[in-house]
TrEMBL record:
Lineage summary: Bacteria, Pseudomonadati, Pseudomonadota, Alphaproteobacteria, Hyphomicrobiales
GO molecular-function terms, A-Z: DNA binding; DNA-binding transcription factor activity
Composition-biased stretches (Polar residues): 1-17
Presence of the UniProt keyword Oxidoreductase in the record: no
Keywords: DNA-binding, Transcription, Transcription regulation
SMART domains named among the record's database cross-references: FCD, HTH_GNTR
Name by which UniProt lists this protein: DNA-binding GntR family transcriptional regulator
């Protein structure tokens, strides 16, 4: 099995890699930060639902009826069911026996537990990458942080989404597929928690911290990178508050996401 990583510089991924399935070919060095394009209808619906959940268009605890989702995206209930099952693995959806699927509604206590696990995983990421990033990877990370800075204080939901994507980008650069899978799951869950409980503009505080992490990785200072990552995630976890939000019909909420994948 061959994987792309910071050490080898290869790009091939095993067809048995669960994080690669449906993701299309790995990004090459000219477009390392590019987000994989969904290769199937199920994955497209999964990604659309993920974004709707993280952006709080679908409220925590909201019911996710397969028929309404299928109708909105112009797909079968089978595809909707499979997409919901995948999101349940990520911790964004809860499947209740004989009741159906619901948007996950994690408590602040669960959030603290998830961030604790995430801190351990991401210290592993920085340890693997420090001093081993190629120039193209450093450039991609720098460009991504610049993109984060551009939306800072302008679009809170986009800031939360990009903050999560930054950490996924780092994980992908390790080439360790099991690590990528676990980081993807905890980052998705943490993004939901931040969207639920994060203080206004709390995601903006992390942009400068991301830049410092990239600088430490580029210098090959593993201890400093680990320290910065741990402190960054501890700070992110502390920026929380409860906030009640109104509910809307699922078809109206998902319509903009469905329009993006028409014709796939």
């Amino acid at each position: 099995m061959t994987t792309k990583n910071a050490q080898s510089g290869g790009t091939a991924r095993s067809v048995n890699d669960p994080t690669a399935k449906g993701k299309g070919p790995p990004a090459d060095d000219t477009d390392i930060a590019a987000k994989p394009i969904p290769a199937s209808r199920t994955e497209a619906v999964q990604e659309a639902l993920r974004q709707a959940i993280i952006e709080q268009k679908l409220q925590p605890g909201a019911r996710l009826p397969e028929d309404a989702i299928g109708e909105t995206f112009g797909t079968s209930r089978t595809i909707a069911r499979e997409a919901l099952g995948r999101l349940a693995v990520e911790g964004l959806v809860e499947l209740k026996p004989n009741k159906g699927a619901y948007v996950a509604n994690p408590s602040l206590e669960e959030g603290r537990d998830i961030f604790m696990v995430r801190r351990g995983l991401e210290r592993t990421v920085t340890g693997l990458l420090a001093g081993k990033l190629k120039p193209a990877e450093i450039a991609a990370l720098t460009k991504f942080v610049d993109k984060e800075h551009a939306v800072s204080g302008v679009d809170e939901r986009e800031s939360i989404r990009l903050a999560g994507e930054f950490h996924l980008l780092l994980a992908r650069m390790t080439g360790n597929q099991l690590l990528i899978r676990y980081v993807t799951e905890v980052v998705s869950r943490c993004s939901l928690i931040l969207a639920m409980y994060g203080r206004p503009h709390s995601a903006d505080c992390g942009v400068d911290e991301h830049r410092q992490i990239v600088d430490a990785l580029a210098r090959g200072d593993a201890n400093r990178a680990n320290e910065l990552m741990d402190g960054h995630l501890a700070s992110v976890a502390s920026r929380a508050m409860l906030e009640a939000k109104p509910e809307r019909d699922i078809r109206d909420l998902l319509a903009p996401y469905a329009a993006k994948i028409k014709g796939l």
